[in-house]
Amino acid sequence: MFSEPQGDDGTGPKEYGDGNTYFIKNVMDRQNPLDRRTSALDPFLNSIRKHIKPDFYIDTNQEGIQRNEGLTFIHRKLDHADIYFVTNLQNRSIDMPITFRIQSGYPQEWNPYTGEICPIYQYIERSEGIEIPLSLAPYESTFMVFEKSKKQIHVTQSQLQEVTNLTEETLAAKVDRNGTFYVSIMNEGTEQTKNSNCKRSACSIYS
User: Fold this and answer.
1) Chain-centre distance of CA 203, in angstroms?
2) 3-state secondary structure of 150
3) 52-56, 72-76, 179-183: range with lowest mean pLDDT
4) Which of 2, 134, 147, 203 is the most exposed place for a label (fewest CB within 10 A)?
5) Residue 182 and residue 168: Cα distance in Å, rounded?
6) Who's near 87: CB < 8 A, 6+ residues apart?
């Protein structure tokens, strides 16, 4: 069902029966490969997002790509955790932030090749879910596991190559050059930004 236009953008909604209807003025046509507009600008998908958030979200506009060419996932829920199996089905590496529709959880990466379990120390908690920087080689797969627990101290933004350890007292990381690096740390709802001089390949921010 379609409603009459509501408001300046003409997208509704209007109550109809037990649900809502939307009138969409302009539905985007992406058959033109030169059309660089993304799903973030599509009024139809944005109407759906008002009720259901994407389970696995890539900001294609921010990443400068038109669409996801081969990054796929399977999501399973357990009583104590959410598990995502993520696969890069393309012949190029990916390195970009991914938002998982998880409102609370302690993220870990489980390596399906070695069995190694690594805590993830850098992520951002957003209204849409938890955003994690993800790097995968061509045709590589990984497990992202979100254990239900209390909020953990974590890095939200940094210039570091990789955060290797984080506690209340210290942060250890890898860097690819000498210099001064900043890092923003979220702890119990308070975010603090720190700076430190680091030597190449290793860095301790504070103690």
Assistant:
1) 25
2) coil
3) 52-56
4) 2
5) 17
6) 71, 72, 73, 136, 139, 140, 141
Q: What is the mean pLDDT of residues 42-63?
A: 71
Conformation bin of residue 103: beta by default, left when phi > 0, alpha when psi is -120 to 50:
alpha
Alpha carbon separation from 95 to 4, 121, 132, 173 (Å, rounded):
43, 17, 11, 18
CA distance 114 to 4: 57
128 within 8 A of 90, measured Cβ to Cβ: no
Q: Which two tokens stand for residue 171?
A: 């942060």
Cis peptide before 13 (omega within 30 of 0): yes
Sign, Cα dihedral of 172, 203, 163, 160: positive
pTM of the model: 0.70
C-alpha–C-alpha distance, residues 6 and 2, integer Å: 11
| Contact of 68 with 89, CB cutoff 8 Å | no
Neighbouring C-beta atoms of residue 64, cutoff 10 Å: 10
Q: Where are the beta strands (DSSP E) in 3-70?
A: 14-16, 19-21, 56-57
Cβ atoms within 10 Å of 56's Cβ, excluding its own: 18
The structure tokens listed for 38 are 């993304």
> In this structure, are residues 15 and 22 in contact, taking their beta carbons and an 8 Å threshold?
no
Residue type, 54: P
Q: Tell me what pLDDT residue 27 has.
A: 67
H/E stretch holding 108 reads: strand 106-110
Query: Among 37, 164, 49, which residue's Cα sits nearest to residue 57?
Result: 49
